[in-house]
Amino acid sequence: MPRKLVVLGCTGSIGQQALDVVRALPGRFEIVGLAGGSNLAILQRQVTEFQPRYVYAATKSSECSFAGSRYMPMEEMASLPDLDLVLVATVGTVGLKPTLAALAAGNRVAIANKEVLVMAGELVAAEARAHHLPLLPVDSEHSAIWQCLRGEVGESWAEFHPSVSRLLLTASGGAFRDWQPGQLREVTPEQALAHPNWRMGPKVTVDSATLMNKGFEAIEAHWLFGVPYDRIDVVLHRESIVHSLVEFVDGSLKAQLASPDMRLPIQYALTYPDRLPSPVAPLDLARLGRLTFGEVDRGRYPCFQLALEAAAKGGAYPAVLSAADEEAVRAFLAGSIAFTDIAGLVSSTLEAYSGARPASLDEIMDVDAWARAEALAWVSRHGR
Question: I need a labelling partner for 203 at 20 to 30 A (CA). Which of 152, 217, 257, 338 fits?
């Protein structure tokens, strides 16, 4: 039987590539629901092609009249009975409540939304454990770790295993890896969005340029695989061919290699536990010639250091980090602040926070709202 799939964030980069995977595997999936953002033209084409029973658009208007599909909010869509998988491919806080709703309903979740695990990893991981559900990673780095761990610990990859010494996330260095620090203040959003290796959405691409994304991924890895932070490292790898590595206590390393194409980790999550043919061309190692690795210069990437410090503090600090960064990136893309202001805004917001550890979803959302207000106030004081 085809797998019943809901795609949240279907009009974004990951959502569109997920539907590419569905097209490449005819008969394997039934698209039950599609939830898009404000790009109604893309959503209309997707609904016409896949004929889902349910549809959601972030911009609800008279244009959102999709014949044959019932309008349904994301939380309800994620909670539908008899689903095989909910792909959470949204960006930002909007993905948190649907993720928790899917898990509470007993639906498996493939998670591509970094902010969900950064701001509420403890809550989401606990909900998954309570319903005996795995969280299936979609990010290329976490998919690589997942694949390496499955070969060693089977289906118990979400728990720390004593044979694991450390996880090594790889980082390309982003759009400005070869720029001098003095050049960065005047960079434009268009330059920041020109990633050398990957095709991603605007938020993730800017986070790649600041290396905030790698700090986020360290936090995600902690919650996805149960590995302590002091056993999670990052290595610079310009080619984006080795997607991540696992080091074991005997000194052995396992790595997962593939072309830098998000359709591969998306397909692995959607078809798990099976491996199926893919439209992505296999690697030609002889043509590649060599792969390079190096240390991350933390002085060059202050956002990366801020993320690690927030992770070490724990409690609400990762939620503050996530919200402040989302507002900072939005302000940069709108031309309201400089690229180099992103770190200053996030640092100031983290320094201003002094609240208690959140114990519920409502408290996390309160922290998120406070951090956004603080970030916007910073933009009003220091913006262009």
Answer: 257
275-308 per-position pLDDT tens digit:
999 989 999 999 999 999 999 988 889 999 999 9
Cα–Cα distances in angstroms (integers) from residue 150 to residues 225, 241, 314, 347, in the given order: 11, 20, 28, 37
| Burial class (CB within 10 angstroms; exposed 0-12, middle 13-18, buried 19+) of 381 | exposed
CA atoms within 13 A on the CB side of 228: 6
92: left (phi over 0), alpha (psi -120 to 50) or beta: left
Backbone angles phi, psi at 233, to 5 degrees: -125, 165
Residue 256 has pLDDT above 80, yes or no: yes
Per-residue pLDDT for 161 more than 80? yes
Token pair for 338: 């400089």
Residues in the chain: 384
Of 258, 269, 21, nearest in space to 143 by CA: 269
Question: What are the tokens at 26?
Answer: 């005819």
DSSP state, residue 235:
E
List, for residues 309-354, the tens digit of each pLDDT value: 999 999 999 999 999 999 999 999 999 999 999 999 999 999 999 9
The pLDDT, as a whole number, for residue 63 is 53
CB atoms < 10 A from the CB of 196, how many? 16
Residues 6 or more apart from 55 whose CB is under 8 A from it?
33, 34, 35, 36, 43, 47, 64, 66, 69, 70, 71, 72
User: What domains are there in the chain, each with its CATH number?
Assistant: 3-133 (3.40.50.720), 174-210+299-384 (1.10.1740.10)
CA nearest to 97, candidates 126, 75, 129, 66: 75
Question: How far is the C-alpha of 12 from the C-alpha of 199, rounded, in Å?
Answer: 11
